[in-house]
Design goal:
217 residues; five-stranded parallel beta sheet; single chain
Amino acid sequence: MVQRGFLLILSGPSGAGKNTVLDAVLKRCPDVVYSVSATTRPRRPREEDGRDYFFLTREEFERRIAEDGFLEWAEFCGNYYGTPLTFVRESLDRGEVIAMDIDIQGARQVREKMPEAILVFLLPPTMAELEKRLRGRSSDSAAAIERRLETALEELKAGVEYDYVICNDEVERAAAKLEAIITAERCRVRRSEYFQLIKDIVGEQGVMRQDDESAAH
């Protein structure tokens, strides 16, 4: 029987480095699958449809909402973001770990539908560093950056709702911590393929003790 996979949710303010950290983990963990989100925001330079996001029109996205086609969805800075439900179900059944980069609203929706999901919050080392990263993007206007910084302060308050918190002061160190979380979650007794083995061994020992007691009499 294939061990069922689990959802790994990574959230944090825009500019915290979620994509960069996830990319580093995906390179080292071939059995971790990145869940590609759908969005209505404009495509950035070097982004590919189906790899970075599924880029949809607003009309198409709203049609899928009406059809209950998303595990979670939210509107952020005037654009929709969501996770296709079919992809998640099929991946979990194959025993894969699905890594998702979603916002606070989305993480809360996922936890309501799948309480067993693992939530990780990625922190920037400082607000000054976060602002520096955001201003380093050529795709966002000054007004958009200010909105993201204001939103970041509210998002940071939600970090206490998560199972784990990682400070991304250095990408490789943050990626190593995320990889350690994945390993630890795989080893949880009730998730591990060794759970049944433990039960079998205990059962065998019980039978052996009964046989020994019978022989003694």
